[in-house]
Each structure stands twice: as structure tokens, then as C-alpha cells.
Amino acid sequence: MDSLAGRLLVSTPEITDGVFDRSIVLVLAHDEESAEGVVINKPVQAPIDAVLPGWQDGASEPQKVFQGGPVQTDSAVGLVGVPGDGEPPVGVKRLFGGIGLVDLDAPQESVWPAISALRIFAGYAGWTAPQLAGEIERGGWFVCDAEIGDVFDADPATLWRRVLRRQRGVMAWVSTYPEDPTQN
Q1: What are the GO cellular component annotations (predicted)?
Q2: Are 67 and 73 in contact (CB under 8 A)?
């Protein structure tokens, strides 16, 4: 399987519980051994400053911590929008396109002027490469192209439907799938 880094995993209606129910995962790294990403559409009620003082003011709306996944939820991952093609600022590693990983211990005054967006995640999602390939093959995930706006979307509650709606065929149809099919 080609690397899925920079792409989205959109949960299908087959996944019905936990953090992955109607979730969208941005794949940050994927190789022949493992895959890691963050769930981009599940904010929690914790304000960013409660976890990382000083980072909230520049964060993208909604200015909440997002549940990045079920792994190491006591740690934080920061993603930033990095405009242009030049070198990112000190403390930022460009991952792909306009998305970078920010070192949350970096001096904020060097980061803020050089980024266009910020999102903080508690934990991450992780798989072995064969495990993820099996979940995709069994119909648990759709693989879609990501847009930078997806990562920093201001309305995460509707993102699952909107990402699916812009796809073709079955994926667009699934965007209308009811939350409770017994009520259809």
C-alpha cells in the first residue's frame, strides 16, 4: 500500500462506537510498519489554556482541545498551517503541503508570526500498517484527499458529512446516512 500520509481516513457507518464513530483522521505518518494520525473533528470541552497556557489566543476556532485519538491522551500534538513553500519557523516541522507539526515547548513568539492556523490534539490514533490495511479492506475507512481547511475547520460537528459529500459515488451517498438507521 502506498503511504497515506497527508490523506484522510473517514470512518464508514461500520464504525459505531468510541472516538472513531463518524470520525475523520488526518494521517500524519504511514510506512510499511505503522500509521499514526489525529482525529480532526472531535473537540472536547477543555479550553487550550487549561492544558497549554498561552497557546489558546492564536488557535483556530473552536478554540478547544480536540481528542486526537485513543493513544496517549495525556500528551498533546499541535498542528499548524504553514503558508508558502519556504522554511518553517524554529519549532515547526513541515509534514506535507501547508501542514506542520509544532513543538509545543518552542518559544511561542517565534511560532505565532509564521503560522496561519493552530489546532491542539490530546493523544493520537495509531495502527500497525497491516492492521490499518485490514480495517480499510473490511470497509471501516474511506480514504480521501485532505484539504488544509479540513484540519482547521471551524465547524467540526458537520465535517464528516461535508468531507463525504464532496466525494464521488458511494462516499457522497454515505454522507446522508442517518446517525440512527432504525429511525430512518
Answers
A1: cytosol
A2: yes
Q: Where are the domains of the chain?
A: 7-74+121-183
- pTM, two decimal places: 0.94
At 125, list the grid cell.
490514533
Q: How far apart are CA 119 and CA 12, in angstroms?
A: 24
Q: Indicate the class that CATH gives domain 7-74+121-183.
A: alpha beta
DSSP β-bridge partners for residue 9? 25, 143
Strands 64-67 and 117-128: parallel
CA nearest to 54, candidates 38, 78, 71, 31: 78
